[in-house]
Amino acid sequence: KPMIRLALANFEEEHGTVDSAREVYHGLLEAIPGHAETILKFAHFEKRHGDESKFIDIIRTKGEFADGKTKGFLEAQIARYEYMVKGDIENARNIFSEAVSKHTHSKFLILSYLNFEIAQCNNLQFSTANVDQVWEMAQTGESLSNSDKQTIAYRVLDFKIDRGANIQTINKIERQIFDYGKREALEVAASESKKRRFEEEEREKPAKLARQGTPEVTLQLALGTATLQGDGSVQQQQPQTQQIPSAGYYAPQAAPTAAAAPWGAAAGYGAYGAQYGGYYGGAWDYSQAAYPQQ
After folding, report:
1. Per the confidence metrics, is the pTM higher than 0.70?
2. CA distances to 1, 146, 271, 275, 284 from 17, in Å
3. Tell me: the pLDDT tens digits for 176-218?
4. Packing angle between helix 107-120 and helix 129-140, nearest 10 degrees?
5. How far is it, in rounded angstroms, from Cα 91 to Cα 149?
6. Which of 64, 62, 65, 91 lies closest to 78, judged by CA?
7. H helix and E strand count, the chain
8. How far apart are CA 290 and CA 294, in angstroms?
9. Distance between first and last Cα of the chain
10. pLDDT in tens, 92-149
11. How is residue 50 annotated by DSSP?
């Protein structure tokens, strides 16, 4: 887990084992390439130990494996470093401007750029053109969601009110905030509706396919002799066959042979009687007279 490994790196650094801490950072970035918190902490780690030139290099090289929003976040950190540490306003502005043109979907980056330009307006005589330029970039950016645009618009509105903008400007921004909120609500509603419709279609698919099928298929589904598969196909059920044991009560009995039953079925019964000690006591001797001689 990153938090445990980062805590270990802090522990190693605190106890003077800098090389061990550095190995922890390297190992973590190999396991999770592009992890924003690790990249930023590693860059500050190297800066603390006397190599400020590695701060930007680590962020840029390790950030190559990050996604677009993470790259926007890291670029904002570089611009902030140029402005807050080096005091180079123009270089920071150039970094912000170039990064926003590449990562137009990063709300954090655009808000950082906007706050940077607002911070430069330290007196009423300073032009607000740069703030307006960032606001224009946010409005025209197709990658930002309506919710993100609404958040940025609130920040611009606060700035305009603080600077004493006219009511026409304030009303225009407020209308834009309302429009962004309405669009976001509609998008959420449409997404939820689409999700519900998909779920309902999935639930109704078996019955719908059965209705659209032939009468024979419909009857098979109703009787349970066929099942409907997930892709809409119908699979026939194999009939259950009754297994008759080869021995025991149902074991087939051998028919009497001609030698054992010369007189057919009657003699056969007599043979069975003799075998099991039955009533007849044996095969009847038909050669005797029907009645005993007196």
Report:
1. no
2. 21, 48, 104, 100, 113
3. 999 989 888 887 777 776 666 666 666 666 556 555 555 555 5
4. 170
5. 26
6. 91
7. 12, 2
8. 12
9. 115
10. 999 999 999 999 889 999 999 999 999 988 765 567 889 999 999 888 877 888 999 9
11. T
Those residues whose C-beta lies under 8 Å from the C-beta of residue 96, and which sit 6 or more positions away, are 75, 76, 79, 109, 112, 113, 116
The residue with tokens 């670029």 is 75
- From residue 38, alpha-carbon distances to 35, 74, 107, 214, 258 in Å are 6, 11, 21, 62, 97
Tell me if residue 70 falls in helix, strand or coil.
helix
* Nearest alpha-carbon partner for 278 in 266, 269, 287: 269
Do residues 147 and 105 make contact, with C-beta atoms less than 8 angstroms apart?
A: no
Residue 100 in tokens: 């926003």
Q: How big is the chain, counted in residues?
A: 294
Are the C-beta atoms of 8 and 24 separated by less than 8 Å? yes
Residue 235 phi/psi, 5-degree rounding, is -110, 125
Q: Token pair of 154, please?
A: 């609130």
